Amino acid sequence: MKEVKLKSCPFCGGEAEEKHSSTSGLFSNPIAYYFVQCKSCGATGEADLIPRKADEAWNRRPAPENKPLTLEELRKMDGEPAYCVNSRGDGKWAIVHICDDIQDSFCGDGNSEEWEFAYYGLTDDSNQLLDGAWLAYARKPEQEEFKLNRLKERLERETP
Fold it and tell me: Which InterPro entries match (predicted)?
């Protein structure tokens, strides 16, 4: 039987692993069960007596929508990671740094790249990100997901 390849965590994108445990059954007989758990954030899938079914249940879980974070959400994330994407669609993980003057706040990757809050989400008339503008996500978006989010936002703004 072919082994089920586990998808990454729908919450943080971390690697998942199959685990097993046991519980007391009728007359204190142990019953083994299996589940999948994220190695990074600890999220778990449905438990099952059959490992393959637990794996399939994990892979079936829909990922929560990964919209760009609002500026308000970013302001609450001091010291936390965010996935920052520039107007070309290039992105990387960075740490949110909140300053006393919110306009001085930024996300930085620890090297030379910084994304200043003053340029967050700036778009032109067609709702395309301006050069130097950027967006942040709670988890790394798929390239298609990034394009779809931008299209949805543009349609929402153009629809009366």
Answer: Toxin_RalR (IPR019908)
Report d(CA 4, CA 14) in Å as an integer.
Answer: 17
- Both tokens of residue 64? 């929560």
- What are the beta bridge partners of residue 85? 91, 135
Phi, psi angles (nearest 5°) of residue 102? -55, -30
83 touches 60 (CB < 8 A): no
DSSP assignments along 16-61, one per residue: EEEEEEEEE-GGG-EEEEEEEEETTT--B---BSSHHHHHHHHHHS
Cross-strand pairs, 38: 16
Query: Which residues on adjacent β-strands are paired with residue 23?
Result: 31
Side by side, the strands of the sheet bearing 114-116 are: 114-116, 106-108, 91-97, 81-86, 134-137
Do 101 and 159 meet the contact criterion of CB atoms below 8 Å apart? no
The answer to whether 110 and 95 are in contact (CB under 8 A) is yes
Q: Residue type at 5?
A: K
